[in-house]
Amino acid sequence: MKGAKSRSESKKADSKLSVNKKGGASTKPAARKGKAAKDPNKPKRPPSAFFVFMEDFRKQFNKEHPDNKSVSAVGKAAGAKWKSLTDAEKAPYAAKAEKRKADYEKNMKAYNKKQAEGANAAEDEVESEKSMSEVNDEDEGDEEGSDEEDDDE
Question: Cα(57)–Cα(75) distance, rounded to whole angstroms?
């Protein structure tokens, strides 16, 4: 095909378009806006039975292999051992996981209740702050007037 651009020529042209100068439009997709910040007081989700097993397995594995610092080696060994366990051997870990899940649900109910109460209190605070600012404005006006009286004397 005569007159057609080669692939390398079109890539060069595309790279020129993708140069991002300050204030210029970006060719990359924009980051998500409005993502809510995490609340540090929110309860953490409970671990699954496997992660409860991992807690015990890590301790045991580190005693047997004190020189091993690789996280991936511990994970691979734990995964292999978990697969080899029978359902009866996994049962205690599943029971611990269920207990932690029940505790988590209880904590979440308390957290949600506290959040609901906090939202109502926040609305009240906004109203009270507004009225307080109006009162403060009036007080400041009085002070300025009293200064003028002192100047006249």
Answer: 9
